[in-house]
Amino acid sequence: MATATNFVIVDTGCANLSSVKFAVERLGFNVTITDNIELIKAADKVILPGVGSAKHAMKNIIAKNLMATLQSLTQPVLGFCLGMQLMARCSAETNEASQVDCLGLIPTEIKPLNAQGLRLPHMGWNTLTTVSEHPIFKGINVGDYFYFVHSFAAPVSQYTIANCEYGSTFSAAIAKNNFIGCQFHPERSGKLGSQIIKNFLNL
Question: Is 187 a catalytic residue?
Answer without folding.
Answer: yes
